[in-house]
Amino acid sequence: MKQVAVIGAGLMGHALALVFALGGHRVRLTDSNPTTLDGSMALIEKAAATLVSAGEADPSWTPAKLSEVITRHETLADTVQGAELIIEAVVELPDVKTALFRELDALAGPDAVFASNTSNLDVFPLIPRHRWKRSLIAHWYSPPYLVDLVDVVPTPETDPAVTAELKAMLEAMGKVPVVFRKFVTGYVANRIQEAIALETYRLLDEGVVTAEEIDQSVIHGLALRMPILGVMGKADFAGLGVIRDNLKNATYQPPAVTGRSESLERAVEAGHTGVRAGKGFYDWGGRTAAELFQDRDNRLLALKKALRDIKPMVPR
């Protein structure tokens, strides 16, 4: 058991607190916004209840037990007191992260490990250099209590023992850490996702297909095979000679990165920003955002259970 501090109780932070609690660790949680911190336990309890009802967490994880294992603190000093692992899950703004790491440097013990959940930033220059030996990135995917992938990126000076210990800790919690040799923006999953997004919005903007037709193509084409074969495994089944010939003969040109999509701009300007607004590319009206997120989680849990029985063909 480790004493874990989670800095930031928003979308990812409160969920990470739950993940580490379920993994057998004690968690201290804080946020600079009192309203966010106050509301975090209700979100944690709801997510835990979803896991319990699906048989993915022990029924003993009642609100009372969660409150014993996950404590909330108003100050950073109280939060990091005695912490062995400090998870940074604040907004993706370099100035904010720089200021936070400066405070953590003054407050945390010399042996504490700093782990940033950054999605795209190279945070290493923002962390005091003398902390690099015990610092790294541990990037999670939402919701982290359901999505098992964790991108682990050591600094150029991270002690290999620190990386190995974190990797073992994550694996013991049932997660799938991928350790990178160096930092790259977007890691693997986000880079592939970004490439898909660029093509998706080009197809929408050009009026080639609708949003629904794009999702039909992904769900009934790409997604059906990916959980079993991944990308590289699928190439092996197609035959690498065929893949090589396809690359030689390809006339496809990837879309240019323009930084905007007219389809996306129109949706946002109309207030159709997604599930929380009741409408995005789809009309989600008639159900609350909380109901929709819970429905999503239940379906993801059902899929995870099925995949455990089916098992991917590619080695883990």
Helix content range = 40-55%
First-last Cα distance: 26 Å
Shape: globular
Secondary-structure element string = EHEHHEHEHEEEHEHHHHHH
The CATH level-2 architecture of the largest domain is identified as: 3-Layer(aba) Sandwich
Please give the CATH class of the largest domain: Alpha Beta
Q: Record the strand order, biggest sheet.
A: 3-2-1-4-5-6-7-8
- The total strand number stands at 8
Question: Count the helices. How many?
Answer: 12
Find the CATH superfamily of the largest domain. NAD(P)-binding Rossmann-like Domain
Broad structural category: alpha/beta
| Gyration radius, rounded | 21 Å
Could you say what the CATH topology of the largest domain is called? Rossmann fold
* Main sheet overview: 8 strands, mixed
**Mean of all residue-level pLDDT scores:** 94
Strand and helix layout:
Layout lengths: L2 E5 L5 H10 L3 E5 L3 H20 L9 H7 E3 L3 H5 L4 E4 L5 H14 L5 E4 L18 E6 L8 E6 L5 H13 L3 E4 L9 H17 L5 H19 L2 H7 L1 H10 L12 H8 L19 H22 L6
Helix pairs in contact: 1-2, 9-10
Walk me through what this model shows.
By secondary structure, this protein is an alpha/beta fold. The chain folds into 2 domains: 177 residues, 3-Layer(aba) Sandwich (Rossmann fold), CATH 3.40.50.720; 122 residues, N-(1-d-carboxylethyl)-l-norvaline Dehydrogenase, domain 2. 48% of the residues lie in helices and 12% in strands. It is built from 12 helices and 8 strands. The radius of gyration is 21 Å and the shape is globular.
